[in-house]
Amino acid sequence: MHDAASWAARLGGDSFLAQTFNRSYAVIPGQAADVAGLLSWDDLNTILATQRLEPPRLRLSMDGEMLPLHQYALPVTTRRAVTWHRIQPAELQARLAEGASLVLDSVEKIHPPIGAAAEALERFLGTLVQVNAYASWTEREGFGTHWDDHDVVVVQMYGAKRWRLYAPTRTAPTFRDVEAPEQPEGAPVADLVLTAGDVLYLPRGWWHAVTADQGTPSLHLTFGLVTHTGADLLTWVVDQLHSHLALRLDVPRFASPGEQAAYVDELRKEMLTELSDPELVSRWAESVDTTHYGRAITSLPYIDGLPARPEITVRLTAPRARMTENGPDGTVTLAAAGTAWDFAGQAAPLLRVLLAGQPATLGSLAATADLGVKDVASLLSVLIEGQAASVVGTAL
User: For residue range 235-254, what is the model confidence (pLDDT) as tens digits?
Assistant: First the structure.
């Protein structure tokens, strides 16, 4: 489950996108082997021991409330007067035994296997992904019955977890909404137990109560999907319309009623013209995909461009990059991380390899495109400078 193809196959590909995505929950049974390598208990222990994690990045939650930090960590002040909190393992474990749930936010940023899985899911669904890890040991609920303002893909790593699902009480609720959803009433519409390897997709607004009541420690990952609403689309449309004078003029608050009406009418015309474009959503999607910076990383020690060494390994770090073949002139355009580059058509095969998201050596890319390693190094240097690619395996 570390690449876009495996995510698509596991979730259901085009059928999932057309029938389930943003619509209803889905459970995809699996096996422990399906998620092997993403995050182990040993990995979690190492992260907790080696990272400086402050709330809310790391937190304990019980009965819907976050536990005070002093119940499981102690402040430490260095000789340079920098204070941070050191986890006390015995106290942390005592709180977990009492019924607290452990939450670790944005684990994709500190654990490469999860980072790769998050990037692949982003490539499949076209939206930014954040991954949180949750560990629980008792039947006591960590968060109570609640809903999220974003869709989630839940992957059960170890043990088992019970999910009671309730239908939304407000259609498409959002963060800082004008109205809060009412608490659900009655029995849940689904009462599920996820075991290692199982996947649950849950759209935003669905209420859920989650508990580790199966007599075994539970560790699961939640891949949170950034929501894109009509309000986001309209904000983008307004940004596009800044090239029009009507959008740049001052609002005539002190003008006559007739002048104000004419001003508003001109705004309406500009907006309706834009909204009448049947390709509007496609244009918006291409724009947000190709301007998103992705997950750029440094390419040390190569600060002055890549040397022509075939063993250097690189990969594209903008998972929603797009390539366009330009027709008669034989060139191709790669758009990513807010920049568009034109390359000779001979570069297309190596760009397709990079677009798949997998690491590749300069030597293999050169062979794929029938180019010299020096030419490939120059091309990748351009993409690295544009923060669309990175070195992931040095030759040193």
Answer: 999 999 999 999 999 999 99
